[in-house]
Amino acid sequence: MGVKLEVFRMTLYLTFPVAMFWISNQAEWFEDYVIQRKRELWPPEKESQRQELEEFKERIRKQREEKLLRAAQQSS
User: Fold this and answer.
1) How is this protein positioned relative to the membrane (predicted)?
2) What would the pLDDT profile of 2-40 be if each residue is shown by its tens digit?
């Protein structure tokens, strides 16, 4: 039983990675599943969303600069 078990284990060890590689490299599966799922999770940005994000970043930057300026003035 020892040799048969080892042959089975070696076959399993070699077959599983090859099968996973083959399945994951199917172009149809990739296009249908992965790209669709990516678009569901991260939809394309809209220009208004990007603009709002930029404005938010600018407000936060100005707040930080004002805070640092006040701290510098108080310590002087």
Assistant:
1) Single-pass membrane protein
2) 899 999 999 999 999 999 999 888 888 777 888 888 888
User: What is the C-alpha to C-alpha distance for residues 28 and 32, in angstroms, rounded to an integer?
Assistant: 6
Q: Which of 35, 53, 51 is nearest to 43 (CA)?
A: 35
Query: Can you tell me the distance from the alpha carbon of 73 to that of 65, in angstroms, rounded to the nearest whole number?
Result: 12
Count helices and strands in the chain by DSSP H and E runs: 4, 0
Interatomic CA distance for residues 73 and 9, integer angstroms: 72
Give residue 31's pLDDT: 79
